């Protein structure tokens, strides 16, 4: 297992796009949040500042950071797609197998990479949370709603493995990235609305949406809880749904890789 | 076919075994292969690409310098793969196949897309590797190439084995001899009795003989001993292509 991961690392560590995409994620996420916390970035007009900047104290720092992470994970999802499709473009998927990988090892190496990206994301958000929390609050309130960090883990795994599956299915980065955005931004929203309109909250359980539901827009949540509007369904439903989708991606990708010509 | 035994293509039927039935992936680590195109990470140098190949094969990084020197790429080892010419890419693929000093090498069209000098270079390399005691399995549609580098040959058509054996037996360029004399009919009855003559055809007022290992001198002597003077005697080499067409069109 270590060997597979070490070889994946050899592939990416000299790849400039890898450093650019992870760098964008690693820089933009804290900058964006710092902008909001410091009041420089006024997303909701001047009145919004008070509510939001308080959200970077412990307790709420995790769901806040978590929500914005759910937007910025797109960078690493795209990176996952590019790394996967590169193998097809360079035909190195064949070469890896010719050199002695079994098809399963090749596939699992990619999953380990996705897992490594997920752990990196989670640890990074944890560190950011500590820093933001410590600067806006005292450590006595630590950890607060730290379960959101677990949601970040689930969401990243869902997004990255979805990217991996698209890469395997479509083999060309342009198409795979296009479909990723098309699905994430348009198709899923449409399906969600349609399903929710007819079938209550079924639409919330769509592949990426299930994880998005774990990390909702914090201000909206605040308003909802104040107004005691609809009671949110329990989180574990979305956790189970997310893992179910991740397992489905794994199975589809596996069937595709083990049975087709390369 | 080579794609199937290297597990990049799935077979419709049949099975294969490597090195006495080792698990396929383990066996592939002990085989050096070059399949169709050189496949490497474009953004990395030869040196680092070989690092990945060596890591997958699991034989250690030690012989990267040796294989690069063998194919003449040592001076360019730090250049990116994307900056290589096709010939260099092909040579890097051979270098990669040589990692871990495998006993069996699989080359699919190893001279594809190379210039004449490159082709000669690769052929010399293959012959040299064979002298070092390596078994080389090579696929090629260039019969001339097969004749120059191979010792054994198998001809497949649509998955069926047409024939196999030593190159000098299978692809032997059967000689054809054309002869003619004043009385062609008499000549034909006489020559038909000569041992070694396989078949006789009438071609442009002469007889075309397919013969085994008899020389034109022997034919001439035979005819003279039977009282026939030949007016025409030509040795015609049959091209390998003609031979191949005959085999595959059966």
Topology as H/E string of chain A? HHHHHHHHHHH
List low-pLDDT spans of chain A: none
Q: Spans of chain B of 5+ residues with little confidence (pLDDT < 50)?
A: none
Overall 3D form of chain B: elongated
Indicate the CATH class of the largest domain in chain B: Alpha Beta
Rounded to the nearest angstrom, the distance between the terminal CA atoms of chain A is 23 Å
What would the average pLDDT of chain B be, to the nearest integer? Answer: 85
State the strand order across the main sheet of chain B. Answer: 7-8-6-9
Question: What is the CATH architecture term of the largest domain in chain B?
Answer: 3-Layer(aba) Sandwich
- Termini Cα gap of chain B: 21 Å
Q: What is the CATH topology assignment of the largest domain in chain B?
A: Rossmann fold
- Give the fraction of residues assigned to helices of chain A: over 70%
Care to describe what's here?
Chain A contains eleven helices and no strands. By secondary structure, chain A is mainly alpha-helical. Chain A has one domain. The longest helix of chain A has 34 residues. Chain A is globular and about 60 Å long. The mean pLDDT of chain A is 88. By secondary structure, chain B is an alpha/beta fold. The radius of gyration of chain B is 25 Å and the shape is elongated. The mean pLDDT of chain B is 85. Chain B folds into two domains: 138 residues, 3-Layer(aba) Sandwich (Rossmann fold), CATH 3.40.50; 74 residues, 2-Layer Sandwich (Alpha-Beta Plaits). In chain B, strand 2, helix 6 and strand 3 form a beta-alpha-beta unit. In chain B, helix 4 packs across helix 5. Classes of the chains: A mainly alpha (262), B alpha/beta (250). Chains A and B meet through helix 1 and helix 5 of A and helix 2 and helix 3 of B.
